[in-house]
Amino acid sequence: MCLWSGCQPTVPKNKIKVFIYSLKKYVDDSGVPVSNTISREYNELLTAISDSDYYTDDITRACLFVPSIDVLNQNTLRIKETAQALAQLSRWDRGTNHLLFNMLPGGPPDYNTALDVPRDRALLAGGGFSTWTYRQGYDVSIPVYSPLSAEVDLPEKGPGPRRYFLLSSQMALHPEYREELGALQAKHGESVLVLDKCTNLSEDVLSVRKRCHEHQVFDYPQVLQEATFCVVLRGARLGQAVLSDVLRAGCVPVVIADSYILPFSEVLDWKRASVVVPEEKMADVYSILQSIPQRQIEEMQRQARWFWEAYFQSIKAIALATLQIINDRIYPYAAISYEEWNDPPTVKWGSVSNPLFLPLIPPQSQGFTAIVLTYDRVESLFRVITEVSKVPSLSKLLVVWNNQNKSPPEESLWPKIRVPLKVVRTAENKLSNRFFPYDEIETEAVLAIDDDIIMLTSDELQFGYEVWREFPDRLVGYPGRLHLWDHEMSKWKYESEWTNEVSMVLTGAAFYHKYFNYLYTYKMPGDIKNWVDAHMNCEDIAMNFLVANVTGKAVIKVTPRKKFKCPECTAIDGLSLDQTHMVERSECINKFASVFGTMPLKVVEHRADPVLYKDDFPEKLKSFPNIGSL
Amino acid sequence: MQSCRRKSLWLALLASWLLGLLGILPLLRLAVPTGPRAGAPQGWPRWLDAELLQSFLQPGELPEDAPQLRRAPRGGSCDWGACFDTSKCRSGGFKVFVYPAAEPTSEMQHKILASIEGSRYHTVSPTEACLHLLTLDAPAGACSLVPPKWNGGKNHLVLRLHPASCSGTFQLGWAMVAEASPTVDTFRPGFDVALPLLPEAHPVRGGAPGQLRQHSPHPGAALLALAEERGGWRVAATDSSACPWDGHCEQDHGPEQTHPGAALPNATFCLIPGRRADALRFLQALQPSLGAALLRGYRLDQGGHCSRQEAPTAGAGCPPGDAPHAGPRPASADPVSVGHLLLLSGEGHPYRPREPAFLLQIIQDRILGASAHPSLLWNSPPGALLALPTFSTSPLDFPFYYLQQGSRPAGRFSALIWVGATGQPPLKLIQAVAGSQHCAQILVLWSNDKPPPPSWPETAVPLLVIEGHRKVSARFFPHSAISTDAILSLDAHSSLSTSEVDFAFVVWQSFPERMVGFLTWSHFWDEAQGRWGYTAERVNEFSMVLTSAAFYHRYYHTLFTHSLPKALRRLAEAAPHCVDVLMNFLVAAATKLPPIKVPSGRRHEDASPPRVPGDLGPAARDCIDRVAAGFGHMPLVSSRLRLDPVLFKDPVSVLRKKYRGLEKP
């Protein structure tokens, strides 16, 4: 039993380092070479490793060693002599931390399912492992590369129904299997096609590129694109290059090879791209396949093609996937995810994996932290503090003092409130300071509030917090705004009119999870954060984009409030209402959409009100009676 | 010695022939690399004549291989095709026969066997069974003998809840072993099943919800807790200030604390050694903490469904540059992993005993092969036990995975109108529903002694009458005629306007996994009587919506019909109000979220349908208590909000409003 050891952590990148031995020629005592020179594929493989981030030419820093002795095909090897050559390697040490690549293991008559060259502790990346030879969690099961991948130009064919339901294209099949396939063809007629070697081809035709059924001649691998399912039967070896051709054609492989360890099965979810049928069930294969719904078949076709593109199509892809798997074992905490391995790009692009995905409703007892961004409006700030402190669930108040020229008022002058009040002085007057993940934030819920928002009632704020608890992964705010596509100008437009839809909320007063402060500060795409600080505008739109992009969900607008209007301030949206303001806000949306590369905002037609809002019910029995001003 | 000398001679010979550069031997014609190009980067050289190298796979080589059959399993290893006969399982369904325990069993074992015997999988006939279950958990020396229909262990599942008990009794052969904390040496991947080691007190169903209430750890939480011997924990006292925002970490400081008791400290990661004795700590750590770090040698996966990268393993300390900040540290990766692990710990299933259901589902998945659960269904909420493979194996068909799949529910719904014994043809309702632009079809479930009227109103959408006297629970039958993801469930008595239907459907599209309804009930704990109750009195919160007018995903019909234990469904038939309670329990158990209420016009009160009495009778009250007992816990969650149209009852012109029908006083 081999277990992992010996790889020193290569901080900070969590990446193993791979060394390649230089090419040497090994001959036996009679001067005959131990093996052929390296194959085209092995040369490609070593080139791919050498070009990758894994490569090091410093043998002392390496964690993994790759010999330049080509053992891809055991047929070309002299077993004993190859083992002796391996043992000559300067760091061999019984194969510890050495990686061998082999695609065609074994030889007649038994055809072992793993390379017969004694390799001791060396890791084997092998094609055609069986459950008996595969050392789970140690060896890596790789595909048998199909040279047709590079030789033939086969344009992609989309998923959907095809001419043949089931196709067998392999030439070297055991007569008993061929008989069973023939029986299937006899039973199901036209929808099953069993191909064989062509016997009467003229000399100049490449026989590997042709298949025949009776007197009909088919081009290979093109014929695979005519079938929905393609049989991949064991031959002498379990691993078959035809698997690669089949995947490429978007034909769903029907793998009939008991105990075969499918390529990269440690990370690839083969259930999504193939059908594995036990050998003894071969007679039932047609009915098994027929029970699969059409939509699932099409997904499998897409998935098969994607597996080929990502992991089968070149020697480079095979080599890098192998190293990634080994890397993931050594640094499991930095391993790439199931989704990254298995989801095709179209799914990755459209899908969202919400980091706050657990269906939790945080306990009310924790409350929220209010963060007030202020510059110098002390009187207004004190009123906001006094008003917010009346909200039952407030647990801490944090004032972000953004004025470097002036000190905050003395401690004795501040309003006396029932919860801790802390003042943070910032080094620079930046809008992004309001979204900084301050250590002082101990609650999950944050209320961002401007220093002039005094019109929100205690009921409105408390209700907002309770709504946030039910939607802790969303922005929960009061006035809603909308983005619209301007067909004339062919760009996005900001809308603050009375609309039936919302896609953003203003962060002049909004609840959200404190995690988004971390994302805003450290993970905002592109130059958006600096751009916002330079323009002193649109930090709220940036936050709306960020949250919608990472969660795939819409904002929640609470209560009917349409604007933040207060007696002293003429400002709306925190700034001015003139046309230039609207133009600037529209510019922000266009800028952010181009940086994100998409429009993440989601439009909804609902807002959240208390259950009994505007219902014919005694006001004094309602939990949040004081809601309703605009 | 002689061989040693021969070997060294060999080596010397070989070494003498080690010719570093090639091109010496004329044997190597084209294939001789001519050396690296000038100026090429270091590393593997770029051979100028690389194109001339031959392929490892010569054309025509593979076809020459002698094809052969190999079927019989050999060695001690097993795999699915060779050691298990799936024919019985496919033809007769997945039936499990349980060997009666000869010896007095442990309480846990007893509970598990009892739950399997009460499940839909159980059969009393060993010949009919696809799987024979044998428990090996007797105290030392009292292990059972080879059972009568052993057959080399074929199609047998040996359940071993405690590591290594009765290990040497007899050869397990072809039997699958479901074992707590197996070692990598004996575990056969894809064949055996690894179980968590359960404490004796582990609840077989329901049980307390996990202690995890937050998405991120409290800033004061320690980074790492180490499981110590004798059940204690030691905290590596890294407070958040040791890893400030800039990512630089200081050495751990502060005293190390030891907790002699078994209580888990407040820590982000828990380090559990791979010793078998510590396996129990694993489940303990999954409860409140955000991640568990395992030392190598311990098998985590349940039959390979929780893949490696989903099991968070973490080293101690803060790797610089990897965002180990106090606030952000949590949410970047940890909660994700925790969710998976919470599912594994059995949160996924509401009412059936956890362990057996899990186990049997894994095995059934293997038998089903192509129609088994994809990994996504095992590893994302609500978990594989609530995503029935008999419904679909495509995540796109379930209401839970739209976001992960980058898709969205389709824009149409099917109205399902239940006409009970006293119901009249709901002509007005049909017109109102058919008026919705989102309506795809109307199905009338005519369950009335009178024959349905021969003619129905002309509607823009197809109207289908399904006749037959049915039980109340049959309204949630997954009729094949339902062609859309969304169902609008209605009673003949319900009264809705087209505006209400349109708005509620648009809301449902944002929350496809939840129920969206108009009329609500609230559950409460009745202190005086010591049991659960519920009320239709309008209060400031609610936890159930009535299915007499509600949108939900059609998958819940399958879940209702095929996963609820018979006893619960009989309950619904005895007390018709109970179907609403049951359906709400079912959806809440799957989503762990409250339903959604949308505004309803006053006419509901005016109509006062008999299904919404102000005071529910004693039978109805009893219902919720019995359903809660059947589920083993109370899954309902309360909500305090209602979703209204954005301009709902705002003082602006009605012409501006999209859902004007909702504005009437």
From TrEMBL, chain A:
Keywords (A to Z) from UniProt: Disulfide bond, Endoplasmic reticulum, Glycoprotein, Glycosyltransferase, Golgi apparatus, Manganese, Membrane, Metal-binding, Signal-anchor, Transferase, Transmembrane, Transmembrane helix
Main location: endoplasmic reticulum
Enzyme Commission designation: 2.4.1.224
InterPro entries membership: Exostosin, Exostosin_GT47, GT64_dom, Nucleotide-diphossugar_trans
Pathway involvement of the protein, from the record: Protein modification; protein glycosylation
Keyword field contains Glycosyltransferase: yes
Catalytic activity line of the entry: 3-O-{[(1->4)-beta-D-GlcA-(1->4)-alpha-D-GlcNAc](n)-(1->4)-beta-D-GlcA-(1->3)-beta-D-Gal-(1->3)-beta-D-Gal-(1->4)-beta-D-Xyl}-L-seryl-[protein] + UDP-N-acetyl-alpha-D-glucosamine = 3-O-{alpha-D-GlcNAc-[(1->4)-beta-D-GlcA-(1->4)-alpha-D-GlcNAc](n)-(1->4)-beta-D-GlcA-(1->3)-beta-D-Gal-(1->3)-beta-D-Gal-(1->4)-beta-D-Xyl}-L-seryl-[protein] + UDP + H(+)
GO biological process: heparan sulfate proteoglycan biosynthetic process
Locations listed in the record: Endoplasmic reticulum membrane; Golgi apparatus, cis-Golgi network membrane
Exostosin GT47 domain ranges (all copies): 13-292
This protein's GO CC annotations: endoplasmic reticulum membrane; Golgi apparatus
Cofactor: Mn(2+)
GO molecular function: glucuronosyl-N-acetylglucosaminyl-proteoglycan 4-alpha-N-acetylglucosaminyltransferase activity; glucuronosyltransferase activity; metal ion binding
Group of enzyme by EC: transferase
Entry membrane topology: Single-pass type II membrane protein
Residue ranges of domain Glycosyl transferase in the record: 368-613
Similarity comment: Belongs to the glycosyltransferase 47 family.
Quaternary structure, from the entry: Part of the heparan sulfate polymerase, a dimeric complex composed of EXT1 and EXT2. Could also form homooligomeric complexes. Interacts with NDST1. Interacts with GALNT5.
PANTHER family reported in the protein's UniProt record: ACETYLGLUCOSAMINYLTRANSFERASE, EXOSTOSIN GLYCOSYLTRANSFERASE 2
Function: Glycosyltransferase forming with EXT1 the heterodimeric heparan sulfate polymerase which catalyzes the elongation of the heparan sulfate glycan backbone. Glycan backbone extension consists in the alternating transfer of (1->4)-beta-D-GlcA and (1->4)-alpha-D-GlcNAc residues from their respective UDP-sugar donors.
Entry protein name: Exostosin-2
Species classification: Eukaryota, Metazoa, Chordata, Craniata, Vertebrata
